[in-house]
Design brief:
The complex is a heterodimer of chains A (626) and B (496). With 626 residues, chain A is α/β, with parallel strands linked by helices. Chain A contains 23 helices and 11 strands. Chain B has 25 helices and 5 strands. The longest helix of chain B has 27 residues. Classes of the chains: A alpha/beta (626), B mainly alpha (496). At the A-B interface, helix 21 of A face helix 8 and helix 12 of B.
Chain lengths: 626, 496
């Protein structure tokens, strides 16, 4: 539509003229436009000031093109090309009809890139109609479900079969496992004492190094320079106009009750909302959550991605699927119950800018908002504080591969696509991806911003979650140890040994702990001398050192971790951490059992069980900053 | 980046100081200076290293182990028949302290000559020279306390987590180094309220204490546990009279300091304040330089008080035989302050040099007036007087070095002889199974038995004499006396 002077009427004025937008809202939007540097339409939709349907209809009026509802007038999918499907969803454009002498496209965005694309696809003969972005995404999904699903499930296995956990053990690994077990059985039969001494030596030295390494991590991780990578001043100084489009993936399954929490958290992010591309990833059969999402009447920056049912039904598969619709330069993942610190996205952008060029991902810290709910949540908080506040920064500093956490990892989208994203068969796909990226010579960094999650507060639920994690670590270890020499070459000696101890060692120590505890208590209560023979003095001293000072140090580190977080009241609870380790061992044995019987089974963690859903540690931090 | 030639010059100076220390130690040893504590430690190490089976528990749990572990590698060195290892170790540790200090002074932009002058003046102070040459674990204590001091300063400046970790671990480490560390803890702990960052302390005072004290608590509990495992009682180390953790009360009659101040609190505190001024007048200057830096001044005052309070406490418990040992803590305090405060320009550096010099002179003067027996031996040896009191032990040691069969011997009484022999090969010492086995029998079955005269003080302690009280005077069936000199007898097994 043109005004009296023949110029195209600005969209904002048209919306006001049509009574769809208040003057004040337009003024606000124009102010934001100056600040954020994005288009007015994106601002209006992200703020929810105009309904999407009204917006696109007005856009059609402005462009003097018909508005098409793709739910009613479905595009001619014979015109679609499988290899272009991702471009369709990225640019929000679809071949709609083949007319005489030209191709009619349906578009939701009239950018130069879209016009260039239509021109290229139709050799210059095209016209277009206007539709909404939701129509385009829905249409693309309806037609290309199978294609996208196939990409989500099989692309990694096709492109990098060696990195897929689709096969649990390779034949070579089985051979070595068999050889080692056979040698052990023969050896223990022929030379029982010597064999047991050798096993004992291995275990003792492993435990000693494991403790030493964790102490080293804590030491390195406690350095202020490593700890505070991005300062509050840097966040304040950043110009919103320079910020990139950010895709936020929120995979959910049967969690309608926590949906309002994450949407509210994302709405309150200190980031231009019009630069957010938020995907609520819902399973097709999860009608309850889909309905809840629709009922929320979410703003235009939210999109619902329905993942078609297929096996394996895992979070990485769902994320891979949603990645086909991502448009951001950067991509992150949040779980449904997450409460990221408001400036996290900005901090991630700054961290990327400060990091080496080959940085593929920045991991934010995770912690819990319901730490004080019960003993289990306290232990979880101690553990996560140690893991994310000490260990991961140390791993980055020491150039040891970082097993990414389940959420709040911020990727460069292009690199993520290039490495075929997550392994859908790995139940700790994020940990695996961290190692894979490092092997491909990408840098994995961390940033000092926290996402608060819901700590598991029920034992059964905790065991399920933890056994999945440990199983995932087992898968990750097995996948990357298929070619140890290659792994050694790609990670270097520090990275390789760091991987052995941090991934393999974590699992092994969980499995060994109950055996060692049992031996210890048998010895303690029976005062038997039977075990003396397999504990020559030097091994006895190493074992005693690990038992007393090693465990003591780990308890100390747990206390330190919450001290760093200013959760002082949790410090005495660190003394009960050994019981928590025992529970981890139970979960580890369950994981081992599942690795053999149900390797790809995703033990679902139930969220929303906490009574502390309204707790928000971010407020405390904000107040502290004030 | 320091140019290579500068580093070379640094190295040369430090080497020179190291050589100076070594020469000083050798001079002392050549004049037969022998520190009982150092020799006992060395013999304990020999006993473990030369035993058939390496058993750390044979070191006993009545004394901290880290100094003993550091001595172990020296047992592989040849030619230490005079038991020089503890002295060499002390010298090395003080040299290491000086190397670290020199590095930190260099960070403060002090020139090579300035640093050398400071290093020389510090080394010539009595407390440091004493620590470097007496072969006790004081040198190691000083090294650790230097870091404790700097960590406390860092904690108050930077309030970072690493300071808390460092402090916690250093204090725990100190427990394994110096049995007297308990008094440092007692003196230091109440002051955390002033040392720890105010914001953190006000938020949760108890957590500051917990975080700093957990490693120490783990260390003490672990020690108790080891006692329970190896000796059957967890609290042996705080109950057995010969435990160094219980202190030096056994030596009260010999220690003028304890005779004068033992069991009191205020008097030794007052005396130590006077000693502070006599030995370290430089502290007055350092505190004056900090007047404008209130936080630093506060922490420095606190840290200055810690050794003084520790001296008072230790004296009140009859622990401290000679104050110079804890005054040495103030010496490293001075060093730590000098590594932090800017002194290189203007009148400050000459003032520091002058006061270190004055403190050195007054310290030496006071020390030479001290009638403490060990200190007197040290002074005499330093002045070149030969000490011939232990000839009997040395002679026995030389005899034993020629007779290398299996022998029953008690290191509690024969430590000087064992040190003179230079090894403990084939010696059945009281902690060994062999010793227990032999002393359980009516008549031992071993090639040699070494006993002192039970009528002299030392002989009364001897554990072989306790089992075989008539052996020294009457001999034993199946054994022939092959050595009898100055209160020592050696019996050799003969066929019946």
């Amino acid at each position: 539509m043109k005004d009296a002077a023949g110029d195209i009427t600005p969209l904002g004025e048209l919306l006001v003229a049509r009574g769809l937008l208040a003057h004040k809202q337009l003024d606000n939007a124009l102010e934001l436009q100056k600040k954020w540097g994005t288009r007015l339409g994106d601002i209006l939709l992200s703020k929810g000031w105009v309904r999407a349907q009204d917006f696109y209809l007005t856009l059609a009026i402005q462009q003097q093109k018909p508005f098409i509802n793709l739910f009613k007038a479905f595009p001619d999918t014979r015109l679609w090309k499988d290899e272009e499907l991702t471009r369709y969803t990225e640019l929000l454009v679809l071949p709609f009809r083949k007319m005489e002498g030209y191709t009619l496209f349906a578009i939701a965005d009239s950018t130069p890139a879209v016009f260039e694309y239509m021109n290229e696809q139709s050799s210059g003969s095209y016209d277009y109609v206007i539709t909404s972005k939701f129509d385009i995404i829905w249409s693309a999904q309806s037609k290309a479900d199978h294609h996208f699903s196939d990409l989500a499930v099989n692309e990694l296995a096709r492109q990098q079969p060696v990195n897929s956990a689709g096969q649990v053990f390779t034949s070579q690994q089985l051979f070595w496992l068999f050889a080692i077990l056979s040698t052990f059985i023969v050896s223990v039969t022929l030379w029982p004492v010597m064999t047991l001494i050798l096993v004992n030596i291995f275990i003792s030295i492993f435990m000693l190094l494991n403790f030493g390494l964790r102490m080293l991590f804590a030491w390195v991780g406690s350095h202020t320079k490593i700890d505070v990578k991005v300062t509050d001043e840097e966040v304040t100084a950043i110009d919103d106009r320079d910020l990139p489009l950010y895709t936020v993936l929120v995979p959910m399954y049967k969690e309608p009750e926590v949906l309002p929490i994450i949407t509210e958290s994302l709405r309150n992010m200190d980031y231009p909302l019009s630069k957010l591309d938020i995907k609520l990833i819902l399973e097709e059969d999860d009608e309850e959550t889909i309905a809840a999402a629709k009922d929320l009447g979410l703003e235009g920056m939210f999109e619902i991605i329905r993942v078609p049912s297929s096996l394996p039904q895992t979070k990485p598969k769902a994320c891979n699927y949603a990645l086909n619709f991502a448009r951001g330069e950067l991509v992150t993942i949040y779980d449904a119950e997450d409460k990221p610190e408001h400036d996290q996205l900005k901090k991630a952008v700054i961290a990327f800018r400060k990091a080496p060029e080959n940085t593929a991902v920045i991991q934010a810290r995770l912690n819990y908002f319901n730490a004080d709910e019960n003993w289990l949540t306290r232990m979880f908080t101690l553990e996560y504080s140690l893991w994310f506040d000490f260990y991961l920064p140390a791993l980055e500093s020491l150039k040891i591969p970082i097993p990414l956490g389940g959420t709040s990892n911020h990727f460069k989208f292009q690199i993520l696509k290039k490495v075929n994203a997550w392994d859908p068969y790995n139940v700790t796909e994020d940990a695996d991806l961290g190692i894979r990226l490092r092997q491909l010579n990408y840098h994995v960094g961390v940033v000092n911003s926290t996402t608060y999650e819901e700590a598991n507060n029920q034992l059964g639920n905790w065991i399920r979650q933890r056994s999945r994690w440990i199983k995932g670590y087992m898968q990750t270890y097995l996948v990357h140890m298929r070619h140890p020499v290659r792994l050694y070459k790609s990670l270097g000696h520090v990275g390789f040994w760091g991987f052995q101890f941090f991934i393999g060692g974590a699992v092994l120590s969980c499995l060994l702990a109950p055996v060692l505890y049992l031996m210890y208590f048998i010895w303690l209560y029976s005062q038997t001398h039977l075990m003396d023979v397999v504990f020559p003095p030097i091994i006895l001293y190493i074992s005693l050192f690990s038992l007393l000072l090693g465990n003591g140090l780990l308890v100390y580190l747990s206390a330190l971790s919450v001290f760093k977080r200013h959760l002082y009241h949790l410090i005495p609870w660190a003394l009960t951490v050994p019981i928590y380790w025992l529970m981890m061992s139970i979960a580890a044995y369950k994981a081992l059992w599942q690795l053999i019987h149900k390797p790809f089974y995703w033990e679902k963690t139930t969220h929303g069980l906490t009574q502390f859903l309204d707790a928000d540690p971010r407020k405390k931090k904000d107040q502290a900053n004030v | 980046m320091i140019p290579a030639n500068r580093q070379g010059a640094d190295f040369a100076w430090l080497l020179l100081l190291g050589v100076l220390l070594a020469v000083c130690s050798i001079w002392l040893i050549s004049n037969n200076f022998s520190n009982e504590v150092a020799l006992r430690d060395w013999v304990k190490v020999l006993g473990v290293m030369d035993a058939d089976q390496f058993r750390i528990e044979h070191l006993g749990l009545n004394a901290p182990h880290v100094p003993l572990y550091l001595l172990m590698p020296f047992s592989w060195l040849p030619s230490n028949s005079q038991g020089a290892a503890p002295y060499l170790l002390s010298s090395l540790l003080v040299a290491l302290l000086l190397v670290i200090w020199n590095y930190q002074l260099r960070q403060k932009q002090l020139t090579l000559w300035q640093r050398f002058l400071l290093l020389l003046l510090v080394l010539l102070q009595v407390p440091l020279l004493w620590a470097a040459t007496t072969g006790e674990n004081l040198a190691l204590t000083l090294l650790v306390f230097y870091f404790v001091y700097r960590t406390c300063l860092r904690m108050s400046f930077e309030a970072d987590l690493r300071s808390f970790i460092m402090l916690g671990i250093l204090l725990a480490l100190l427990f394994f180094i110096d049995a007297g560390a308990l008094f440092i803890y007692i003196a230091l702990f109440p002051f955390f309220a002033l040392i720890a960052p105010r914001r953190i302390f006000l938020a949760s005072p108890i957590s500051v204490y917990i975080v700093i004290a957990i490693p120490l608590a783990v260390a003490v509990l672990a020690w108790g546990y080891l006692g329970w495992i190896f000796e059957g009682t967890a609290n042996n180390f705080i109950h057995q009279p010969n435990s160094t953790f219980l202190g030096g009360w056994q030596h009260t009659p010999e220690s003028p300091w304890l005779i004068r101040y033992g069991g009191q609190w205020l008097a030794p505190l007052g005396a130590s304040v006077v000693l502070l001024i006599v030995y370290f007048p430089i502290f007055l200057l350092l505190l004056a330089l900090l007047v404008k830096h209130k936080n630093h001044l506060k922490v420095s005052l606190v840290l200055l008080c810690v050794p003084l309070i520790a001296i008072a406490f230790a004296s009140s418990k009859f622990y401290l035989e000679r104050p110079v040992e804890m005054l040495a803590l103030l010496m490293v305090g001075v060093m730590a302050e000098l590594s932090v405060i800017q002194i290189r320009q203007g009148w400050k550096f000459p003032a520091v040099v002058l006061l270190l010099f004055v403190g050195g002179i007054s310290g030496w003067y006071h020390f030479l007036q001290t009638p403490d027996p060990v200190a007197r031996d040290w002074q005499k040896a330093l002045l070149g007087h030969q000490d011939n009191r232990y000839e009997a032990d040395l002679a026995l040691g030389q005899f034993l070095s020629r007779h290398r069969g299996e022998m029953l011997i008690d290191d509690l009484t024969a430590y000087r002889a064992i040190a003179a022999r230079g090894d403990a090969e084939k010696m059945a010492l009281p902690r060994s199974d062999q010793f227990k086995l032999q002393t359980r029998q009516q008549r031992p079955d071993i090639e040699y038995i070494v006993v002192p005269n039970p009528r002299i003080k030392k002989g009364g302690w001897d554990r072989i004499n306790k089992h075989f009280p008539d052996l020294y005077h009457e001999g034993m069936k199946g054994y022939r006396r092959i050595y009898d000199d100055q209160g020592w007898r050696v019996f050799r097994h003969v066929s019946d």
